[in-house]
Specification:
Order of helices and strands: HHHHHHHHHHEEHEEHEEHHEHEHEH
Radius of gyration: 30 Å
Mean pLDDT: 78
CATH architecture of the largest domain: 3-Layer(aba) Sandwich
Strand order of the largest sheet: 6-5-4-7-8-9
InterPro entries: UCP010256, Uncharacterised_CoxE, VWF_A, vWFA_dom_sf
Low-confidence stretches: 74-130
Structural class: alpha/beta
Number of helices: 17
Distance between the termini: 63 Å
Number of strands: 9
Number of domains: 3
Organism: Saccharomonospora amisosensis
Shape: flat
CATH superfamily of the largest domain: von Willebrand factor, type A domain
Pfam families: VWA_CoxE (PF05762)
Oligomer: single chain
Helix content: 40-55%
Protein name: VWFA domain-containing protein
Largest sheet: 6 strands, mixed
Length: 384
């Protein structure tokens, strides 16, 4: 019945001059399936969102909608009726309230619509995508307080983040009408069409590409929970899987190939690939190994380097300061993630964090889900 009435509405709108083609009708049908409207008002909002393209179309839609549904006094099937036919449980809505709303006259429905357009509190609520109640509760909790199942439940929320680094000029070029350089090869190639006369000079400019993202993650005992959360973020967030990822505690381990899988598999394989998980911390020696094996050879050059660690150095803090100075000279920006900086009054007065702090462009906490935004912004920021 609902499909027949929806088709009748589209046909009536076309007859009145509204350009409801196959594309709009298909969008309307998809919205009806997704929303499963229980009342004429809910169906109206589906029609308003998919069948109109200009504010001037709204008046025509109102008139035709009221003629097709309001004047005929048609009641839409409720979820409870649909559930009875399909054998599922009915929604816990009041049937009396649904009947009263469905039987409301066109004038009353029009008042609800106008209130909704004005944004009045008495109008129909417009649903917007939000985090679920459980995720909202976990979003304000420190990652160290979450068990593995609670952390895994944040995967979908982490997928909403997009990790993007600043752009840089590459060595490759592309054609551009306003380019600063002349493309002589393309100019001469085009001249073959005009008797070898270069009638039009072709121009080009350098392509832009994202800077490389390199992540060095501390997986020592004091950082175990936050390390898992940060690795899960890299696997889940858009663009995070493109990063070069290393873990360190007492030794350096490259995990880039491991983190290409889904979050659960990636974390399990990361634990197997890094034998020093939950071990001690030798940040300075790990940074020196990274720079000598990968960073100085090109991986860290002009890259955004993110170091995830609480700064508890079991080795020589002076060595850490020296290696951080080398890294800062090579990298575009160095972002340090230290969950302990979220504590009020935190100051890096001693140890590894004191040695590393002067060489960091930004220090963020990213200790819980609702604090990850500052890390994403720090990665995307340009160097000042």
């Amino acid at each position: 019945m609902l499909a027949e009435l929806s088709a009748r509405l589209c046909a009536a709108l076309r007859a009145e001059g509204l350009p409801v083609g196959a594309d709009r009708a298909a969008r309307f049908a998809r919205s009806v399936v997704a929303v499963s409207p229980r009342t004429a008002d809910e169906l109206y909002w589906c029609a308003l969102a998919t069948l109109t393209a200009d504010p001037s179309d709204v008046e025509l839609l109102d008139r035709v909608f009221d003629r097709v549904f309001g004047e005929l006094g048609v009641e839409l099937p409720s979820r409870a009726a649909s559930a009875t036919r399909t054998g599922t449980d009915a929604a816990p809505d009041s049937s009396a309230a649904r009947t009263a709303q469905q039987a409301s006259p066109p004038g009353e429905r029009e008042g609800h619509r106008e209130a909704g357009r004005r944004g009045d509190g008495d109008g129909r609520e417009v649903r917007t995508p939000t985090l679920g109640a459980a995720v909202e509760r976990l979003a304000s909790r420190d990652f160290a307080e979450l068990d593995p199942d609670e952390l895994a439940s944040l995967v979908e929320a982490m997928r909403r983040f997009r990790i993007a680094t600043p752009l840089r000029r590459s060595r490759r070029h592309r054609a551009a009408a306003a380019g600063r350089q002349f493309d002589m090869r393309e100019t001469l190639r085009r001249a073959r069409r005009t008797g070898a006369e270069p009638v039009l000079l072709r121009r080009r400019k350098q392509r832009l590409k994202p800077r490389r993202l390199v992540v060095l993650c501390d997986i020592s005992g004091s950082m175990q929970a936050h390390a898992r959360a940060m690795l899960q973020l890299l696997v889940s967030a858009a663009g995070g899987a493109e990063a070069e990822v290393f873990t360190f505690a007492t030794r350096l381990t490259r995990l880039t190939h491991v983190l290409a899988a889904d979050p659960v598999t990636a974390l399990r394989e990361a634990g197997q690939a890094a034998p020093d998980w939950s071990g001690g911390t030798r940040i300075g020696e790990s940074l020196r190994e990274f720079l000598e094996s990968h960073g100085a050879r090109g991986m860290a050059r002009s890259a955004v380097v993110v170091v995830i660690s609480d700064g508890w150095e079991a080795g020589d803090a002076a060595l850490l300061g020296e290696q951080m100075a080398r890294l800062a000279r090579l990298a575009y920006r160095v972002v340090w993630v230290n969950p302990r900086t979220a504590k009020p009054g935190y100051r890096p007065l001693a140890g590894g964090m004191a040695a590393a702090w002067p060489h960091c462009a930004t220090v963020v906490s990213a200790h819980r889900l609702d604090a990850i935004g500052e890390l994403v912004e720090a990665i995307a920021a340009d160097r000042k």
